């Protein structure tokens, strides 16, 4: 019987009772959600979290992002702070603490990232590729390690044409050697390949995946590729998620602000409007799936996206932004015009949300089994729940914009 079959038959709680977790990025959106679940929803033995600065600064960030849950997390007696910095050798962790991690940790989740789509490729590599490789070197010496979970992005495959994207590593036709590409970026500060990706962040993660697999073929690794994060559906509370971590929230704010203008968007190839899938998934469902795969000790590459949640087209998203705006605002919302002529310049938002004009279909086949799991890690949703949270989400964005305009 496989671990996944064991989870479906007997549950996952007792599996987490044996886990000691090392988590990075615990003050971020996904990392904070993972920490909430590990500390409060699951019988995890212990959670070591890497923090930069001090434990007080981390707790303060939790208070801002999870005001009603932060005290319970800090008081759970499961959380142990590890001071360090992912940009330093061995993450700047002092030797005695690192030795303790080597002796105790069974599961590592690397959720720390610098998701700046405007950054150049050199900055993206230094923040989102090199730390992952440094961590892999570190955990190679963890004596009880069962799995390293590395968070990547589905858009590592954004150089591919629209269509079906499998859960595997794709190579550019002129990929060359990953080590040489990394060395060239670090020496010159740029790469001609970056323009082929949706962002420098996606390109940096693609290089990371290639090098991680190439350098550490015997390490038990799961590479997780989420699509676009949406605010949470349920945990730690509905609509949890800082705006910087939810791109379509930022999109909606800009969309509402463009009063009465006309926006030109490129229609996805084969369509005349925004009939392409806008691949969003709530951050708490991503966290649930990650933890279930961690319990099952899944290895390889997985996608986590709308195929596990609810598919919506870009047309539907635009209709929702209009339907949930107050009547006085609806009259001043911009007009969206789609064109099949790709030589026509797009509006600013189209360039900002480049995935909005593409139609990749990310295969999530390795995660279908998690939709059968009940309890706090469930991925089960109903359309009514999604519609209600979508309405609340857009109404909050509108209210936030209205308040900003009065400042």
UniProtKB/TrEMBL annotation:
InterPro entries hit by this protein: FAR, FAR_NAD-bd, NAD(P)-bd_dom_sf
Annotated Pfam families: NAD_binding_4
One example GO MF annotation: alcohol-forming very long-chain fatty acyl-CoA reductase activity
UniProt superkingdom: Eukaryota
PROSITE patterns on file: PROKAR_LIPOPROTEIN (PS51257)
EC numbers: 1.2.1.84
GO-annotated biological processes: long-chain fatty-acyl-CoA metabolic process
Keywords: Lipid biosynthesis, Lipid metabolism, NADP, Oxidoreductase
Catalysed reactions listed for this entry: a long-chain fatty acyl-CoA + 2 NADPH + 2 H(+) = a long-chain primary fatty alcohol + 2 NADP(+) + CoA
Thioester reductase (TE) domain span: 23-290
Any GO CC annotation of this UniProt entry: peroxisome
Enzyme category, top tier: oxidoreductase
Role: Catalyzes the reduction of fatty acyl-CoA to fatty alcohols.
Family, per entry: Belongs to the fatty acyl-CoA reductase family.
Protein name, UniProt field: Fatty acyl-CoA reductase
Lineage, broadest ranks: Eukaryota, Fungi, Dikarya, Ascomycota, Pezizomycotina
